[in-house]
Amino acid sequence: MRYISTRGQAPALNFEDVLLAGLASDGGLYVPENLPRFTQEEIASWAGLPYHELAFRVMRPFVTGSIPDADFKKILEETYSVFAHGSVAPLRQLNGNEWVLELFHGPTLAFKDFALQLLGRLLDYVLAKRNERVVIMGATSGDTGSAAIEGCKACDNVDIFILHPHNRVSEVQRRQMTTILGENIHNIAVEGNFDDCQEMVKDSFADQSFLKGTRLVAVNSINWARIMAQTVYYFHAALQLGGPARSIAFSVPTGNFGDIFAGYLARNMGLPISQLIVATNRNDILHRFMSGNQYVKGGLHPTLSPSMDIMVSSNFERLLFDLHGRNGAAVAELMSTFKQGGGFSVDEDRWIEARKLFDSLAVDDAQTCETIADVLAECGELLDPHTAIGVRAARECRRSLATPMVILGTAHPVKFPEAVEKAGVGQAPALPPHLADLFEREERCTVLANDLKTVQGFVTQHGNRGKPL
Ligand SMILES: *Cc1c(COP(=O)(O)O)cnc(C)c1O
User: What pLDDT sits at residue 253?
Assistant: First the structure.
């Protein structure tokens, strides 16, 4: 499989190189040159497979030429064995023909584990083969950091540095990062805000000389392997609900357009998905595009669903590429307009094409709390605020009651106690058994000044399993 850039100017890469690449050299994002397409018979024959075997069949075309089948199978079996539920991604019914796909049974209780548990193992496999070591740097306001650290903790060939804003992440989220101990794991609390952290990571990618030749790898959702891993659970859900003989609709709480883009890919790979609902919080750039063909940057609004607090949705560029007939020059032009502070609209017929599949809704904090309370009263399920946004959007945007509606349950409610409290439904549930002693565990974290040279100096000093690079 070959991968090309959404801006059309970077060299095509194979899977292995795309895994290590991050952004393409032209500023674009990598996508497969040709998407695999499965027949209905083929998809139907996967019914009843364990999750890791389904994952093998769905993802195999993406890695062919880079990872032999037997190795890939083994990696997938290991990856999904760490999930705490036998089904890996169980479906739970809420209401008539309405289901939550529980994607929070991984080590850090959010869906990001599906991709980052795999990414860590894939990186280690490829790096061992190449006899190479890399440094990962990432900024987090919560979920990504812990999932990335959990995914990489056992990697022999990776040192990971995760920056979070000092005193500005919740205690559960901080402890989920800082209590994972290992000589290759480095938590940095920056005396600044999340944007400062992200800016430092960006600057570090732009000039990597402080790494003395060691490669820097990205673990945010621009990494193709993350998107690829997320396509699998769309197949998994559909197969439980009568697919592919019958169409399924999905509602996806989204920020960076990563998770929902995976659903769009699953559909283009042959899965009959009749509707995809973009569910956002007040940070609604995607809703403004889907409802009014305006892709314009707004201000950042902190909400009760912080994992979707974004101003720009990086993976949206991957959809734009398809909407423009895979014309990289057209995408580059739009993104350049956007970067210069303008927003943009796409041609009317392209927008109408997108709207055949996508609907959207923006849900504010009050509505989020109301939905948490409603669903608890109706069916005894306590939702996390992100999932609640998905449920709200599903109910308002649903096109057909006859089509099963699946809401992606992106996090366990215990991660976001503030929303549960505000919803007035009492205390959040207890931590699950594997995290029950989280508040007693030893923490390891370094507080550093909000200064690029200081942070980079720390990475240089500790980038080789705690020793200098
Ligand atoms: C990351 C995250 C999201 C948003 O996912 P995107 O891929 O950015 O759309 C939603 N919910 C939770 C709990 C998350 O951690």
Answer: 98
The topology (CATH level 3) of 86-108+226-422 is Rossmann fold (3.40.50)
Q: What is the mean pLDDT of residues 308-329?
A: 95
Q: Catalytic amino acids? A: 112
431 confidence band (pLDDT: 50, 70, 90): confident
411 lines ligand 1 (CB under 6 A): yes
Helices (DSSP H) in 327-384: which residue ranges?
Answer: 328-339, 348-357, 365-379
pLDDT at 108: 94
Strand order in the sheet with 405-409: 91-95, 98-102, 405-409, 248-253, 273-280, 358-362
Q: For residue 261, give both structure tokens.
A: 């883009």
Q: Enter the tokens of residue 28.
A: 């674009």
Q: Point out the ligand 1 atom lying closest to the alpha carbon of residue 259.
A: 7
**b/e map 304-341, b = 16+ CB within 10 Å:** bbbbbbbebbbbbbbbbbbbbeeebebbbebbeebeee
**Do residues 236 and 243 lie in contact, with contact meaning Cβ atoms separated by under 8 Å?**
no
293 to 7, 75, 353, 402, 415: CA distances (angstroms): 21, 41, 12, 29, 34
Radius of gyration over alpha carbons of the chain, in Å?
A: 21
Which ligand 1 atom sits closest to the C-alpha of 254? 9
Q: What is the pTM of this model?
A: 0.96
Q: Is the CB of 108 under 6 A from ligand 1?
A: no
Separation of CA 142 and ligand 1 centre (Å): 10
Instruction: Give how far the C-alpha of residue 164 lies from the chain's centroid of Cα atoms, to the nearest Å.
Output: 18
Higher pLDDT, 14 or 415: 14
